[in-house]
Amino acid sequence: MINFILQIIAAYFVGYTCSICVQTPPRQIYRASIIAATGWLVYLICLDFLTLEVGGATYIASLAIAGMSQWFSRRYHQPVTVFFIPGFYTLVPGGGMYRTALYLIQSDYSRGLSELATTMFTALAIALAVFTADTVIDILRRQRELEKKIRNWRK
């Protein structure tokens, strides 16, 4: 349990330092860090308690990050990338790409290709979650606009 809490705190500080590195506006740094920590929390819950595979856990955590980033973006009138980049920093499979290159350089092709497949699946899960969240939000926005037009038309 203590490891779980330490990982959430570490994810918050990863989001915080990433926010500083990408020059997030100062008032948004802690919000972007909260998104990173929440995304990592969802990821850990999916892995440990729901016993999902890495790809599924990454997809669900990425959905949470993308949804929160979209909501924070609208709520605080900031570009969505202000929250996206620090939020996804904890989930991006940089270590997987490193291990892929390491195994391939060491001529361990079976492990290298296995690691590459896992890494690519993780990256695909992140991209698919961002696309899903953006599409759902766009559909909801259009539905709201259509309902507003219908209400105005009936008057």
UniProtKB/TrEMBL annotation:
<dbReference type="Pfam" id="PF12821">
    <property type="entry name" value="ThrE_2"/>
</dbReference>
<dbReference type="GO" id="GO:0015744">
    <property type="term" value="P:succinate transport"/>
</dbReference>
<feature type="transmembrane region" description="Helical">
    <location>
        <begin position="56"/>
        <end position="73"/>
    </location>
</feature>
<dbReference type="GO" id="GO:0005886">
    <property type="term" value="C:plasma membrane"/>
</dbReference>
<dbReference type="InterPro" id="IPR024528">
    <property type="entry name" value="ThrE_2"/>
</dbReference>
<feature type="transmembrane region" description="Helical">
    <location>
        <begin position="80"/>
        <end position="98"/>
    </location>
</feature>
<feature type="transmembrane region" description="Helical">
    <location>
        <begin position="6"/>
        <end position="22"/>
    </location>
</feature>
<keyword id="KW-1133">Transmembrane helix</keyword>
<protein>
    <submittedName>
        <fullName>Threonine/serine exporter</fullName>
    </submittedName>
</protein>
<dbReference type="InterPro" id="IPR050539">
    <property type="entry name" value="ThrE_Dicarb/AminoAcid_Exp"/>
</dbReference>
<keyword id="KW-0472">Membrane</keyword>
<comment type="similarity">
    <text>Belongs to the ThrE exporter (TC 2.A.79) family.</text>
</comment>
<keyword id="KW-0812">Transmembrane</keyword>
<feature type="domain" description="Threonine/Serine exporter ThrE">
    <location>
        <begin position="7"/>
        <end position="135"/>
    </location>
</feature>
<feature type="transmembrane region" description="Helical">
    <location>
        <begin position="29"/>
        <end position="50"/>
    </location>
</feature>
<feature type="transmembrane region" description="Helical">
    <location>
        <begin position="118"/>
        <end position="140"/>
    </location>
</feature>
<keyword id="KW-1003">Cell membrane</keyword>
<keyword id="KW-0997">Cell inner membrane</keyword>
